[in-house]
Amino acid sequence: MTQLPETARRMGRIQPFYVMELLARARELESRGRSIIHMEVGEPDFPTPRPVVRAGADALREGHIHYTPAKGIPELRRAIADFYRKRYGVAVDPQRVVVTPGSSGALQLVMGALVDPGDEVLMADPSYPCNRHFAYLAGGEALAVPVGPETGYQLTPDLVERHWGERTKMVMVASPSNPTGTLLDPEALAGIHRVVRARGGVLLVDEIYQGLTYGVGERSALEVADDLFVINSFSKYFGMTGWRLGWMVAPACYVDAVDRLAQNIFLSPPTVSQQAAMAAFSDDTLAILEERRRQFEARRDYLLPALRSLGFDIPATPRGAFYLYADCSRFTSDSFDFAMRLLEEEGVAVTPGKDFGFNRPHQHLRFAYTTGLDKLQEGIGRITRFIGKA
Ligand SMILES: Cc1ncc(COP(=O)(O)O)c(C=O)c1O
């Protein structure tokens, strides 16, 4: 019997989520009766809003279980376009809206449709780790540009200009960002767009934490331009992670290519989820989501000063998503080891920086406030005890 072949060479560059190792250990400890405070989880702790669940259950009962068009059902694409008009005052042609299996599906489609082998996608470091893996999957390269608190952990027009190379084709930004929770201000976004377009590239803006902003107005990159990709999702603000539904707004010239690829890779986004999402923009749902947004804001307002006063350095105030990215170099030069010990000794789970890139990851931890205020308070108590022992 011959040996089965090796996996593709590209798999050598696809890294796991290191936090999964930590999560597995947390679950093991929990199964033995230990109390664990979860500050590592990247999804809302709230259930899907009732009107959405009801619409999903109705859809199942009514037999909406067949494939839909690959770009999604026209009613949902129209509802999304309408949402942009009502909430952000921008006119979006529903033809440019493509509904996808999570925003992960959208990212895969954009990379697949645009990135040739050897093409470079420029992105911030730290940032969402899957982005560089999507580029590799398409045969492309990811150029991760180190960013720090001085730019709010975001790319700037100047950084894009300086790092642009012969093979650069796309620039990715995220606002609000994972892991830093920081926003890209509209002027910087417009500047980046100008640089990218002047060089013949395309800009992709990840807005999947849109709606979750605190103390600042909500914006969309579509207010700035329409020759860019905007990626969004029902996962975070709408509390629908497991329904696996997202969308993109694409420049009109790419819609056919994206459609063709979606037909081949996914056939269609999940049908029941699309029907459920039709209730996501109703007044009832939006009222529930606004109440949740306020709760997230109250959690941030508690956790941010609490961590800072313990000695974690969080120089750029996070104004969105549900993450704080903290420099922990006052306590350790190995954030993975710190996170593991914090879990073992005090039962607090946080995400080590090494999940987010190569820019001083060992000096950083991501804290997620996807758990109630009482749990966060308990967590801070345990962290205080832990660093007191160190
Ligand atoms: C910045 C960012 N983009 C995209 C995603 C993918 O989310 P989904 O596929 O659930 O829409 C995530 C998930 O955590 C994320 O943090």
Automatic annotation (TrEMBL):
Record NCBIfam families: PRK07337.1, PRK08960.1
Enzyme Commission (EC) number: 2.6.1.-
Transport as UniProt keyword: no
Gene Ontology molecular function, alphabetical: pyridoxal phosphate binding; transaminase activity
A GO BP entry: amino acid metabolic process
Name of the protein described by the UniProt record: Aminotransferase
PROSITE patterns xrefs: AA_TRANSFER_CLASS_1 (PS00105)
InterPro entries per UniProt: Aminotransferase_I/II_large, AspAT/PAT-like, NHTrfase_class1_PyrdxlP-BS, PyrdxlP-dep_Trfase, PyrdxlP-dep_Trfase_major
Organism field: Candidatus Sedimenticola endophacoides
Signal sequence bounds: none
Domain Aminotransferase class I/classII large, residue spans: 36-382
Cofactor(s) essential for the protein: pyridoxal 5'-phosphate
UniProt cross-references to Pfam families, sorted A to Z: Aminotran_1_2
CDD domains listed in its UniProt record: AAT_like
Tree of life domain: Bacteria
UniProt record similarity statement: Belongs to the class-I pyridoxal-phosphate-dependent aminotransferase family.
UniProt keyword annotations, A-Z: Aminotransferase, Pyridoxal phosphate, Transferase
